[in-house]
Amino acid sequence: MPLSHQLWQANEDLALACLHHPFVQGIGDGSLPEHKFAHYVGQDAFFLEAFARAYSLAAAKAPTWEGFQIFHGLAQGVLQELNLHKGYAQTWGVDLHQVSPAGATRQYTDFLLATAWSQDVGLTAVAMSPCMRLYAYLGQSLAQAGIPDHPYSDWIKTYSSSDFEPLAQQLEQLVEAYAQDSALTQSTYRYAMQCERDFFEAAWQVS
User: Can you say whether the dihedral through the CA atoms of 101, 34, 200, 156 is positive or negative?
Assistant: First the structure.
């Protein structure tokens, strides 16, 4: 079994915890309070900027030209996702220039950037892969009964789309190409998944 699949299966408990989290379920059925989603949009935009930087660092370290191109292309995908967030921000009245990272956001971005700076490209891919695979999983799961018509339908459309799944797969291909199975690999993947869960919980707790 490919390493990326092994890692995903080993952390299925956290994937399910995210799917069944009230924040994600609120996106799914449209019941999420608007101020919680607005907070999430700002925090996620901050996170995505760090995510794009981590991709760029990984591209610079990639030992092959093919790896460089894939990492660079994935960074471009994040920039497109940030444009989507700009649209969200306008809709929800969020000034992205005034966003200060919450504790859970800073914890996650510091971890990603520290990994990208200090570790090899394989471990960086491992640290980043949970975000992409999880969001594809969440989007596809929420869309199983059809895309609903409510304020968060665009979120579900984005992450369940045939455009997003290949991005998750490309990053998993980089895991296969550059990462080795080890205790550090396993703990890095799980920590990223825990950061994802904590990110949703922090947004849910906003009053």
Answer: negative
What tokens appear for 143 in the block? 């869309």
Q: How far apart are CA 33 and CA 75, in angstroms?
A: 31
**pLDDT tens for each residue of 114-127:** 999 999 999 999 99
112: helix, strand or coil: helix
Q: CA-CA distances (angstroms) from residue 193 to 34, 53, 78, 129, 186? A: 25, 19, 19, 9, 11
Nearest to 110 by CA among 184, 201, 46, 24: 46
CATH number for the domain spanning 13: value is 1.20.910.10
Cβ atoms within 10 Å, residue 185: 20
What are 34-62's pLDDT values in tens digits? 999 989 988 998 999 999 999 999 999 99
Q: How many domains does the chain have?
A: 1
- What is the value of pTM for the model shown? 0.93
Domain of 50?
3-204
Q: Which of 35, 2, 53 is nearest to 10 (CA)?
A: 2
Centre a 10 Å sphere on the Cβ of residue 95 and count the other Cβ atoms it contains.
9
Measure the CA–CA gap between 113 and 23, rounded to whole angstroms: 26
